[in-house]
Predict the 3D structure of the following.
Amino acid sequence: MLEHLYGAVLLSHLLTETPVPALGDHVTPTDVRFQAKAVDDVDDIHVTGLAPGGARHRLSIGVRRRPKLTAADSDSVRLISSYLTTVAARWPLLQSRRWSLALAVASVSVPAHQLAELALAAAATGSNSRFRARMTEPGRPGRAVLGRLDQLDALVAAALHQGAPDGGADHAEVTWRLLSRLSVVELRLEGTRKEDRSHSVGRLQHLTPSGTPAEGDALFSALVEKAGTYAPAGATVNRQTLLADLQGLPGLRDGIVLLPEPAAPVTKAPSKPSEAVAPQRRTAARIGPPRELWPPKRHLLPGAEQPQVCEGTVVVRHGYRMSAFDALTGAALWTKHTAYRGRPAVGGGAVYVADKDRYPLPRDLRTGNKRSPLPGQIVDGLAVHHRGTLYAPDARGRLHATDTASATRLWTAPTGTLVTAPVQMAGSALVAVLEADAQPPGAGPGQVLALDVDTGTPRWPRPVTLPGIEQWTATEQAVHLVRHAAAGHRLTALDTASGVRRWDRSLPDAPVAKPVAAGDTVYLTTRDGTVHAIDATTGTRKWTVRVGTRVTVPPVVAQDLVLVAGHTPGRVTALHTRTGEPAWPKAGVGKGAFVSTPHLVGDTVWAADRTGRLHAWNIGTGRPLSVRYQDALWDVDLQGTPTVTDGVLYFVTRGGDLRALRLT
């Protein structure tokens, strides 16, 4: 019953999206898993949450009413063994504070109180040697606490003797590792001490119709009942499923219930153009001309790369320099010289490049000051920052994952050869394309590898060999690769989970960019001006439409439309994703060729032609809007594609001027 009561407390945090103690005050819980043996050896309850930067945090909780915590007690040995297994398997994540351990006990457990005092001291000292030294200082711990440390050392020794892994450390180090990452949660849910229940009721009453304590108490009782149902089933519960399970409960306010998205109507695709369903016309909103946020910045070298925008900062690489500007005012923040010219990784309040010795050098986004150095070496231009982790290959055929907040190496995975491009995230996997195994370095990509994001373990038995890889896109379901073969170009799909080839088909001409995966369809454009829609599951062609004689950019999928910017003739075409039929009465015509992808801001499609004129159309009707801008000139092949963030187009002109245009 204690576990069910505590489960209800955790569900109250999940329902109200408030931090869970021991998971982190900056972490929002996203799901609670009961009897989580499939996830972790500490299997009573497992809580997952997200930090503001997107990093996933986990908390493994063992629930015991009054653990004896002695080596003579077999239950205590089994409990400690489960924690040691997690410590050995997850030590890098525990070091980075992305994984935490907790022991939840009844408030009257004296051994647990002593364990909590030891855990606080171990976490504060930072190493086993300093921890042991502190334990011997006069007057530091009481005799009872020292006795509990002796018991814990004996418990760890007994667990290791019975087969618990040590993670390559001696038993005293193992004891410190466990203590330094363990929180003891004192549960006040029974008898005369029910403060935890009262706090949960206070959180929950804000979700009730009248907001009264009585309604909050009734809602908590409903959560206790749900926990009693979830625990035996080993259920994983997120906020949406919990709200769905509570639907119809009188004590829950209707306004917070998440209703499922209405299913899209299934209709038969028209067999003839004349049978196409006319799109619903939207009224074009009145918009003003693009407005310069600030005067152009002329600090950059001609041909500077297009900017990256992150956390209110614009970062531009130009030659062997890197500069940062305030995204709202354009104020120059800093400029630094770099050892290489690769595109930097940006995220977590920092920008990451390789120094002259190829070590990752983080600089603060706003000040440019160096941050704590990160371990290992990287290949400049190939690092990716995603949800608090820097994924970076080195020049020795290895791929590293590093927690940037704690500078902790999470894992290192050998790839056997060199990574040729930044990795792509595909759900809980990351996908890397490698050089061909049997060819000399620099011969080109020819292998595909999928790794687990958290551990770096391979998802597939071995890398998949596919010679001639030119472009690729990874999703949670499949990896779509464009390959150049002797007989022409091919599009191949590999299952992300297994690496098994789903399908392989020929292409009539060379694709101009990587495939675009949206829903159950893969879209790509070829040099002959054709747009292809291919079923992502079977590889069969859904439709093919020629929009001109030449296209140089990938399609953009937005609001059930495929937007294609054409080079010859210079126009933007909108096609229905389902049928490929034209969605606009007339294509959006420019003064020159369109060599950069269009951008959707609200209901307006924006695109710049080769003469530097910026055009706008209403996405629902295709009606051109009477807004113009004349100086949007950049070289896509040399500088890349501009960035649109929060309705602002950030771009660098051919001459090296950094500009910002508000499009809303």
